[in-house]
């Protein structure tokens, strides 16, 4: 069985950032990655200082090269099971053991059941205004009322375009309606039947009454489901939303287990996930150092004292 100082499950920005920090700290580290990044359908990522506009695949390729350059190992595969003692069984039956574990498995975006929407996800259909608002500035934007945060999302997007329409099965009322009106955002009631596409480009939304709302981009808040299998296997405490509870450094309720990135904060941008992975890695290394110091002190105390 392969034994390493640290095992990292998930090779996205958080996992690779953590691996880079640990490898540079001269820790033996293995990253297990399934090769299914959350932003696989996106051509370019934004808001990452010095990496703005870079294709996500290139970021991961560059990150893997940097990690390997310091002796880190990347294993392509899935984790079938995580056991006490930080033993991982991979999908192909291989087994790995680590002294510490960092989980950066991310989240699944569950979209509403609107025909055609999944095919446009990561293209004209997006979630984050800060990631993609600039690219659709001054265009026709529709915001789907899919969550309690959708009104806030629409209010934000008005910063990028004067043509924002809120689309919801049930029109907002009370304070939400007043806030939308204050930003000049009309409401199209009745929900969405399907996405309208022409020449491989989203051009509108067919509404419940059969009319078509012309738009160039759609924003929505999907339902977030954490890929928390390893954390669940190990008994890490989760909140009511199903996401693992951590302290500010990523430490979970199970000693020796850290989590970082979208598996903890699903709304975090790429740069935030990378920062969280780096923070967790530094704390993991410090934790290992303390364990090693304690072990050496214990050995020293157990040695017989020689008499002069």
Automatic annotation (TrEMBL):
Q: InterPro entries from the entry? A: FAD/NAD-bd_sf, FAD/NAD-binding_dom, Ferredoxin-NADP_redctase_2
Provide the reaction this enzyme catalyses.
Answer: [thioredoxin]-dithiol + NADP(+) = [thioredoxin]-disulfide + NADPH + H(+)
Boundaries of each FAD/NAD(P)-binding domain copy? 5-276
| Family annotation (Pfam families) | Pyr_redox_2
Instruction: Please provide the record's keywords in A-Z order.
Output: Flavoprotein, Oxidoreductase
User: Where does the source fall among the domains of life?
Assistant: Bacteria
Q: Name one GO molecular function term.
A: thioredoxin-disulfide reductase (NADPH) activity
Q: Which PANTHER family match?
A: THIOREDOXIN REDUCTASE 1-RELATED-RELATED (PTHR48105)
> Under what name is this protein listed?
Thioredoxin reductase
């Amino acid at each position: 069985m392969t034994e390493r100082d640290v095992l990292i499950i998930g090779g996205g920005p958080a996992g690779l950032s953590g691996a880079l920090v640990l490898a540079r700290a001269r820790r033996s580290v293995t990253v297990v990655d399934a090769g299914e990044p959350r932003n696989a359908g996106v051509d370019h990522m934004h808001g990452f200082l010095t990496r703005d506009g870079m294709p996500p695949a290139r970021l991961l390729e560059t990150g893997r090269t940097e990690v390997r350059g310091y002796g880190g190992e990347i294993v392509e595969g899935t984790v079938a099971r995580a056991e006490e003692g930080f033993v991982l069984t991979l999908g192909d039956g291989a087994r790995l053991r680590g002294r510490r574990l960092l989980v950066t498995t991310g989240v699944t975006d569950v979209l509403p059941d609107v025909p055609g929407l999944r095919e446009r996800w990561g293209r004209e259909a997006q979630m984050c205004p800060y990631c993609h608002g600039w690219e659709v500035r001054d265009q026709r934007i529709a915001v789907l009322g899919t969550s309690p945060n959708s009104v806030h999302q629409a209010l934000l997007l008005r910063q990028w375009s004067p043509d924002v329409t809120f689309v919801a099965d049930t029109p907002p009322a009370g304070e939400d309606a007043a806030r939308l009106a204050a930003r000049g955002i009309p409401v199209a009631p009745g929900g969405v039947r399907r996405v309208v596409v022409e020449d491989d480009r989203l051009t509108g939304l067919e509404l419940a009454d059969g009319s078509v709302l012309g738009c160039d981009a759609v924003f929505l808040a999907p339902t977030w489901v954490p890929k928390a299998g390893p954390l669940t296997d190990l008994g890490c405490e989760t909140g009511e939303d199903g996401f693992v509870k951590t302290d500010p450094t990523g430490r979970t309720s199970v000693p020796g287990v850290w989590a970082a990135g979208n598996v903890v904060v699903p709304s975090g941008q790429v740069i935030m996930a990378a920062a969280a992975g780096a923070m967790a890695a530094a704390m993991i290394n410090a934790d290992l150092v303390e364990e090693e110091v304690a072990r050496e002190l214990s050995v020293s105390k157990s040695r017989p004292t020689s008499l002069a």
